[in-house]
Amino acid sequence: MKKIIACIVVSAFITTSFCQQTIKEELAKKKIYDTEKAFERMASEKGIAEAFYFYADKNAVILRGNDSIIRRNKQIKEFYEKNQNKNTSVNWTPDFIEVSKDGTLAYTYGKYVWKIRKEDGTTSESKGIFHTVWKLQQDKTWKYVWD
Prior knowledge:
Layout: H1 2-46, H2 48-54, E1 56-64, E2 68-71, H3 73-83, E3 88-99, E4 105-117, E5 123-136, E6 142-146
Parallel strand pairs: 1-6
Antiparallel strand pairs: 1-2, 3-4, 4-5, 5-6
Helix pairs in contact: 1-2, 2-3
């Protein structure tokens, strides 16, 4: 009888721990999704350079082109200020989000669309796949470390 009770207690503990971990991961995924969408909204409202600066960890890295790595949030902002047309917009949505077991790192990927409105009124589009790595900050916000 003691073994049965012990098994029930252990099973209940494992089930509870698993459920708590699952809930924690799902909450983190929702927070990251919400952060992605707030990031996208800021890019639309305040500009791409400001959004990529605001959501970057101070040591963030972005890869642009096949061989251009830009390091640190201030240099990322400068890159976008120099290289982005004011008539450019970007939209994206994460299709997948994964969170580390300890809840401090995550990654997302999904589809993006860059649009550039030309002087003649036409718009060109560039579509692709993004991949972002996120790090939980001390203030409990998420900032990207790789994009």
